[in-house]
Write a sequence for this structure.
């Protein structure tokens, strides 16, 4: 073992103000990595923006959504940057909503591996996504073809030196189906965990995300109508935008339910507005029909100490069991069941607060800052180095990220 | 979680018992920190650990390393060992493999 000098890490990710998938995670992960004494330099290999803006010099806008050359462009930049290790922050549609560019982009870690230590953080697996409800394959033949392609590209991603997933079940799938010895669990981690704001005076249900495929607001709007019969001042906040695979969905929903009062559609929520959106809510609702990985929104509910109402489906149930989150559950798509769970919390502030506090403890238990330590320990191990704390050698300050 | 403390020459041994999860982390952290002296975590009595518990172990390990303090983790139950293995933390954290592993 040699004594190590602080490392140069590259992070390939969608990055704000881009609205690309996982941009918020990329932002917080970059900040956590940049704060570590073991990291001498952090380079962010990010997606391009429609308009050029002034950014810190370590943010490199390199690749574009739906560009077939993404993998090549990323690797060219990595060749220039010469990091000690690269971490790819990915889900299967990170590089496009069109099949060919999305798939070709996923070759980037495999192309990188021969030149540098390459890690992939994969937020979802093809095997666990209901392709139909997620809007990727609407007929059985296409679904089969996509599953085969998904299998092939998962194998390509597994060429990374290490591949992390955020759910234990995903590690099992990679190990059992693909015989992967390099797969491991690295929990999602929560963002900045602060104090819990008091609950709002007006009972407020909030849902957050990209809607229209497996996240549907109709059931929530129907539940809102039922709740108003018992809690006339109840508010419903639908925070977020359309899924790339369901353009126009929220506008249609807003028109369909325009007769309902106290409903707010916020549109895309910028990073700086996220705390207010969560703090102004009594309960966070998850009107999901399926999932595509660990829920960033549940971690945010925990971060802000808010209660959750969740459907009884796979990944969300796993998350509750594995990471100590708590929620009231409802049957997916069932208005009466969702209404009952929401009313239970909206009518009992103490209960809502207690669940929020439990989620806050869970979120505080493992932050993204902790998760970054896991990655750095693994990278150090693979580089064959032990690290000494040398804060003076650190060049990238967190304030630059 | 119950925490019992014994001493052995120059190091402290913390015998842990029960669940090691998000709701117990603060208690354990309060007992173990600040890290000043060589210590061992005897986890023979721990039947469950979640990611919050693992995060605390990683955090303690970093603090111990930076303070030049020796830390070791011993006597993992099989159910807990599986969690270390799935996270590959068994390859980076200082597990004392010389001790008998309880079942």
């Amino acid at each position: 073992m040699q004594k190590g000098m602080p490392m140069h890490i590259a992070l390939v990710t969608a990055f704000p103000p881009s609205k690309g998938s996982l941009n918020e995670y990329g932002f917080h992960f970059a900040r956590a990595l940049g704060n570590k004494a073991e990291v001498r330099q952090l380079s962010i290999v990010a997606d391009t923006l429609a308009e050029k803006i002034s950014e810190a010099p370590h943010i490199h806008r390199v690749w574009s959504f739906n560009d077939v050359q993404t993998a090549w462009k990323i690797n060219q930049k990595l060749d220039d940057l010469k990091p000690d290790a690269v971490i790819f922050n990915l889900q299967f549609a990170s590089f496009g909503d069109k099949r060919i560019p999305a798939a070709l982009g996923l070759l980037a870690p495999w192309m990188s591996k021969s030149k540098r230590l390459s890690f992939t953080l994969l937020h979802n697996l093809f095997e666990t996504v209901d392709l139909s409800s997620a809007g990727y394959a609407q007929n059985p033949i296409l679904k089969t073809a996509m599953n085969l392609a998904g299998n092939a590209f998962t194998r390509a991603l597994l060429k990374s030196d290490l591949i992390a997933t955020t759910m234990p079940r995903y590690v099992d799938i990679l190990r059992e189906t693909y015989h992967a010895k390099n797969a491991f669990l690295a929990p999602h981690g929560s963002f900045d965990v602060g104090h819990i704001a008091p609950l709002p005076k007006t009972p407020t249900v909030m849902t957050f995300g990209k809607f229209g495929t497996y996240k549907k607001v109709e059931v929530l709007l129907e539940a809102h109508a039922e709740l108003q019969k018992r809690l006339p001042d109840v508010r419903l906040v639908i925070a977020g935008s359309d899924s790339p695979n369901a353009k126009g969905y929220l506008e249609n929903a807003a028109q369909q339910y325009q007769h309902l009062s106290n409903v707010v559609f916020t549109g895309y929520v910028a990073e700086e507005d996220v705390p207010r959106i969560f703090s102004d809510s009594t309960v966070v609702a998850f009107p999901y029909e399926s999932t595509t990985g660990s829920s960033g929104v549940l971690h945010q509910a925990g971060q802000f100490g808010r209660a959750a109402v969740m459907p009884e489906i796979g990944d969300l149930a796993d998350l509750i069991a594995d990471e100590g989150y708590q929620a009231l559950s409802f049957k997916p798509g069932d208005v009466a069941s969702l209404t009952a769970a929401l009313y239970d919390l909206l009518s009992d502030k103490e209960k809502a607060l207690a669940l929020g506090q439990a989620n806050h403890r869970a979120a505080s238990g493992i932050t993204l800052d902790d998760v970054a330590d896991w990655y750095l320990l693994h990278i150090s191990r693979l580089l064959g180095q032990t690290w000494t704390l040398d804060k003076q050698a650190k060049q990238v300050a967190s304030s630059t990220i | 979680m119950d925490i019992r403390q014994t001493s052995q020459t120059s190091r402290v041994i913390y015998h842990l018992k029960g669940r090691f999860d998000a709701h117990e982390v603060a208690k354990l952290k309060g007992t173990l920190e600040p890290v000043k002296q060589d210590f061992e975590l005897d986890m023979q009595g721990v039947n469950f650990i979640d990611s919050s518990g693992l995060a605390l172990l990683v955090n303690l390990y970093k603090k111990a390393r930076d303070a030049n303090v020796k830390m070791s983790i011993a006597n993992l139950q099989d159910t807990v060992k599986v969690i270390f293995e799935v996270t590959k933390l068994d390859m980076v954290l200082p597990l004392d493999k010389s001790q008998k592993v309880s079942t």
Observations:
- Residues 26 and 56 of chain B are 9 Å apart (CA to CA).
- Chain B has one domain: 2-96.
